[in-house]
Design a protein that fits this description.
The protein is of the alpha/beta class and 252 residues long. The chain has one domain (10-229). 48% of the residues lie in helices and 15% in strands. The protein binds uridine-5'-diphosphate.
């Protein structure tokens, strides 16, 4: 399977296109899009999103229409392995967001942070300007109404971002980015990353990051997420079924 972006191979996991791309490769495409004012919609696809997309055709179509779909989490790397494919590396939303801030700081990018509870995106901008002083930030919280949306769109357009990081939770942020594709060259959904960038939520300790089990840390620190995480074993079961269905079928 060929991705929407030239020269990147992709694999099919439960009908969702996952690009065989790592952080460095994603950054090359993002940099190119900013420099050439090219529209680029990036989706970080985690097992939960893929699992729901299998049963929800409009969601699946929306995801598959993105320009870049990165494998967000070890669950996606495992699934690829089960299907006999290799993904170089997992690319999480928070890691890619930090790479974007790094690159943005070197090049004076304008980055709009949209999402999280009132005050959080603003705090993320303040905190991250200390680490990445070259970035020009603007922000807005993620609890706006339909009536407030036109003013928000004007605010973003006036700011003219190079990159829009949308943290409204999946898949709301992905639909929003698709609907508002003209707001910035690069748009990416980042889930709860703005809470982390603001210092409101702690990232998993290094140990969990190194082993790719940040989901386990999140489960321990927020047990209420159990209802969301039960989809993980169900997802792996569906992947194993896909493998049996597709034995002998070439996908790349
Ligand atoms: N959120 C928001 N607007 C909404 C719903 C959610 O800004 O209408 C924010 C929420 O405050 C949180 C993020 O979206 O910062 C979702 O985080 P979660 O950890 O659930 O997302 P994930 O990373 O799992 O996709």
């Amino acid at each position: 399977m060929k991705s929407a972006t030239e020269n990147i191979f992709s694999i099919d996991i439960l009908g969702v296109r996952i690009d065989q791309i790592d952080e460095a490769g994603s950054m090359n495409i993002i940099r190119h899009a900013v420099e050439n004012r090219k529209r680029l919609r990036v989706i970080t696809a985690n097992p939960e999103l893929i699992y729901h997309a299998e049963k929800d055709e409009p969601l699946r179509d929306m995801i598959n229409s993105a320009d870049v779909i990165v494998p967000d989490g070890v669950g996606v790397v495992w699934a690829a392995r089960i299907l006999g494919k290799e993904l170089k590396q997992r690319v999480t939303g928070i890691d890619l967001a930090i790479r974007i801030l790094e690159e943005g700081s070197k090049n004076g990018w304008r980055i709009f942070l949209l999402g999280s509870k009132p005050g959080v995106a603003q705090k993320a901008a303040t905190e991250q300007s200390k680490v990445f002083p070259g970035v020009i930030f603007a922000s807005h919280h993620g609890y706006f109404t339909r009536e407030e949306e036109p003013a928000l769109l004007d605010k973003i357009r006036d700011f003219a971002p190079d990159v829009l990081l949308t943290g409204l939770g999946a898949p709301k942020q992905e639909y929003w980015n698709q609907e508002n594709n003209d707001l910035a060259p690069v748009k990416m959904g980042v889930g709860g990353s703005l809470d982390v960038l603001a210092g409101e939520v702690k990232r998993a300790p290094q140990f969990f990051q190194r082993w790719g089990i940040e989901w386990l840390y999140r489960l321990i620190s927020e047990p209420s997420r159990i209802r969301r995480q039960v989809v993980l074993p169900l997802y792996l079961m569906r992947v194993i079924q896909q493998k049996h269905r597709h034995t002998g079928h070439k996908e790349t």
